[in-house]
Amino acid sequence: MALASATGGALATAAAPSDPAQATGTMSSFRASAAVSSGAQAAGRRSIVSRSARRTSSGASDTRLVRAAERLGRERNAALTRFAQRAAAWSAEIELNRWFLPVNYVALTARYGEYGLWASSHTGLDFNGDEGDPIYAVANGVITSVGYDGSYGNKTVLTLQDGTEIWYCHQSRFLVTTGQQVRGGEQIGAIGSTGNVTGSHLHLEVRPASGGTTDPYAAFASNDLL
Fold first, then answer.
1. For a tag site, which of 25, 26, 94, 95 has the least CB within 10 Å?
2. Which residue has the higher pLDDT, 142 or 28?
3. Which pLDDT value is given to residue 120?
4. Pairing of the two strands 11-14 and 181-182
């Protein structure tokens, strides 16, 4: 017999199962049901926490991957920009120092260091040509002298960036003035026969900033022109 609280505060007896075995079974069923319910709730809680953790972990991983990809993209773009800048600088340097032939075709009638009609060894290259044929700047530079110079006849001096002077002699006419900037390949004069000559041609000398003369052939050959 069990005690139960009745309305009004009096104690009353509650009927209990007459069969002890039935009572035991009922209690066992109650305990099993409670255990299953408790286990299900616990499992549910564990499952919810687990899914949330996986979502959080997955989201963090995705964010890290996106940031890493963005960083690599920025580094790649920066590297490409640096390469393009270097390439542009190299291109500008090559263009600045690029050489051109001073005439349309090459027919050499005298070379550097030869002896012949001159009182001393020849100081340049003689390019054969007809009166009035164009003469071109061999590279970018500034015209530093234009005028008549005795045996050299009509002479133009082109000074390159490194101070090297290019002398164009025996011209029939000038097409530039002192102080003018010219680009390689630009026409600056015309072949003639002024000064001490026996026929029309261009006498060209290369004079480094250190002074004296040097073989123009080597300069043209180093630029794959001769």
1. 94
2. 142
3. 77
4. unpaired
Structural Rg of the chain based on CA atoms: 50
3-state secondary structure of 56: helix
Reference 178, options 155, 199, 211, 196; nearest CA is 155
Express as a percent the part of the chain with pLDDT over 90: 46
Q: Can you tell me the distance from the alpha carbon of 50 to that of 40, in angstroms, rounded to the nearest whole number? A: 15
For 108, residues 6+ apart whose C-beta sits below 8 A from its C-beta are 125, 126, 127, 128
Phi and psi angles of residue 136, each rounded to the nearest 5 degrees, phi first: -115, 150
In contact, 125 and 114? CB cutoff 8 Å? no
Give the predicted TM-score (pTM) of the model.
0.62
Dist. CA 220–CA 124, nearest whole Å = 12
The tens digit of pLDDT for each residue in 8-57 reads: 343 333 444 444 444 444 444 445 444 444 554 444 444 444 555 565 66
> Which residue type is seen at 210?
S
Buried b (16+ CB within 10 A) or exposed e, 75-109: eeeeeeeeeeeeeeeeeeeeeeeebbbbbeeeeee
Q: Are 168 and 191 in contact (CB under 8 A)?
A: no
Tens digit of pLDDT for each residue in 112-138?
998 876 667 899 999 999 999 999 999
Phi and psi at residue 208, in whole multiples of 5°?
-60, 160
Q: Is the dihedral of CA 112, 117, 120, 123 positive or negative?
A: negative
For residue 153, the one-letter residue type is G
